[in-house]
């Protein structure tokens, strides 16, 4: 599927492996020779992200400069001539909201990191942000108000991101589209019934919006409890 799509940049989240453990079929993907992997320190099989690119970036950094979260291997940032691309796997608040407080701290630190980048040049944030922002972004909002991914604190964190001048590319183009989900639990045939959540996003700096061609949810592509999303951007 990746070869057919032939993306200029491919971002992967929750890879659960470090660079040396990446399978050879991924290492050898045609057209994506520049590959950058982050993984959790001392925790094999946990978290992890990867950013693969057709063209070599100017610079690549790992983490957001946060001592608490950076060891979890959640962010890779690649700088290109006209923009930054940030690949992120945002922490889950956890069953019973046991990690809600660290998640709230993350949201604050991550927003400041994105602001610092945006002050230098515009950015695209691609990732599993582990939040459904509005009621339209999940199938059963009332039943999930106190569950991870739809708490007031997490939703407010995403609202602050938008208030800071960033744009949810999908909702910018499709503000009222229902049933547009990117994640479905494996339980109970949720995907077949489209009982899902929109947790995966392309978020843009405001000044990139004029080049936004499309932001698509590829919900027919199988292989995970998430589906891919695709951004078409003229730069």
UniProtKB/TrEMBL annotation:
Q: Where in or outside the cell? A: Nucleus; Cytoplasm; Mitochondrion
* Superkingdom in the source lineage: Eukaryota
EC number of the protein: 3.1.11.2, 3.1.21.-
Q: Which Pfam families has this protein been placed in? A: Exo_endo_phos
UniProt GO MF annotations: DNA binding; DNA-(apurinic or apyrimidinic site) endonuclease activity; double-stranded DNA 3'-5' DNA exonuclease activity; lyase activity; metal ion binding; phosphoric diester hydrolase activity
All copies of the Endonuclease/exonuclease/phosphatase domain together span 1-226
- Binding annotation for Mg(2+): 14, 128, 130, 225-226
Homology family: Belongs to the DNA repair enzymes AP/ExoA family.
* Protein name, entry field: DNA repair nuclease/redox regulator APEX1
According to its UniProt entry, this protein's organism is Smithornis capensis
State the organism's lineage: Eukaryota, Metazoa, Chordata, Craniata, Vertebrata
